[in-house]
Specification:
By secondary structure, the protein is an alpha/beta fold. The protein has helices at about 5, 30-35, 35-50, 95-115, 180-185, 185-200, 205-220, 225-230, 230-280, 285-295, 300-319; strands at about 10, 15-20, 25, 60, 70, 75-80, 80-90, 130-135, 145-150, 165-170. It has one domain (about 5-260). The protein is about 50% helix and about 15% strand. The strands form three sheets. It has a six-stranded mixed beta sheet with strand order 4-6-7-8-10-9. Strands 1-2 form a two-stranded antiparallel sheet. Strands 3-5 form a two-stranded parallel sheet. Strand 6 (about 75-80) and strand 7 form a beta hairpin. Helix 7 packs antiparallel against helix 9 and helix 9 (about 230-280) packs across helix 11 (about 300-319). It starts with a helix and ends with a helix.
Length: about 325
């Protein structure tokens, strides 16, 4: 096991948590903005109506990016008796509950191992309550909130089976969840910057120009000035990298779909060819005649005839 995979376990009240060290990912801006415990605690309080005032009450937990993309977009932390996973997404993904399940399963597995808990013992094992929230600022979501269910992926449908994991998706596009934005100024600032970029792209600006213009506009409006004035280059790089990642994902999906369609077409052609060869064999045609009539190479027809003959003998042996 490498040093990168070892991590360290720390005690937090009655819980143990594992802090993973992994420098091979790139932050997205959302995660970067909420790495300060004060801002993260402010977001937690806004979501839960709580009044925690000490940032040290919040213990950050960072998992290895094994089940997530190379763009690191999650914030995980323990507070009170909860283990919270906050994610940011700008591209819709119906598999969020599955990712949450895998994430929490890893956390609980490590927790049991460190504490030496016996899952076959008579006593109930106490676990922190998992909370999974995704902040979404992509297109296609027209409501403030939406709950996704793991059981929607089951063949039997929602509510079936013995396992469930829910993910609350919170729309942070401009114009949504205004009450939440009013409670968490940093979240509103992020929403405004993201919305400015998207509006500029819709106006026909190139990606780089759209991001530059949005950053300058936000500075003029006093939005995220503490970050944009001190780390403008860093923010610019993050936003451009995020858009490159989204483009890469779209291209990968398109290439995979095109390859699948190509394989499907070829399979269909082979099945059709096989059907025609079978009909001509039934009429007493020889390989040379079939190849000539179908305008195919003789070795191709020979191989197909050989396969059909083998299938015929196998079928009759099994009768």
């Amino acid at each position: 096991m490498t040093k990168r995979n070892l991590g360290k376990w720390y005690r937090h009240g009655n819980w143990w948590r594992r802090l993973w060290f992994n420098r091979k990912y790139k932050d997205v801006l959302f995660r970067h903005l909420f790495q300060d415990k004060r801002d993260l605690l402010d977001l937690y309080n806004a979501l839960n109506g709580s009044t925690y005032g000490n940032p040290e009450d919040l213990e950050v937990v960072t998992m290895e990016d094994v089940i997530f993309m190379k763009m690191k977009n999650d914030l995980s932390f323990i507070i009170g008796s909860q283990i919270n996973l906050y994610e940011h997404q700008s591209t819709w993904n119906p598999n969020m509950p599955l990712r949450g399940l895998l994430y929490f399963a890893q956390q609980f597995e490590g927790l049991l191992a460190v504490r030496g808990d016996d899952i076959y013992g008579k006593g109930r094992i106490e676990l922190p309550t998992p909370i999974y929230i995704v902040f979404f600022n992509g297109s296609g979501m027209n409501t403030d909130n939406l709950v996704l269910y793991l059981s929607d992926s089951f063949s039997a449908g929602r509510g079936k089976g013995c396992l469930e994991c829910t993910c609350e998706v919170i729309n942070i596009n401009r114009g949504y969840n205004q009450a939440l934005m009013d409670k968490c100024h940093r979240l509103w600032e992020y929403s405004e910057l993201s919305s400015e970029v998207e509006e500029n792209i819709k106006k026909g600006m190139r990606r780089e120009e759209a991001v530059h213009t949005a950053i300058d506009s936000c500075i003029e409006r006093g939005i995220l000035t503490d970050i944009l004035l001190a780390e403008k280059g860093v923010v610019l790089h993050m936003l451009l990298t995020e858009y490159d990642e989204k483009k890469h994902l779209r291209n990968t999906f398109r290439e995979g779909r095109e390859e699948g369609e190509k394989i499907g077409r070829e399979k269909g052609r082979q099945e059709k060819l096989k059907e025609m060869v079978q009909k001509k064999l039934a009429k007493g045609k020889i390989v040379l005649e079939i190849a000539e009539e179908l305008e195919e190479e003789i070795p191709v027809i020979e191989e197909m005839v050989s396969g059909l003959t083998a299938d015929y003998h196998t079928c009759h042996r099994n009768l």
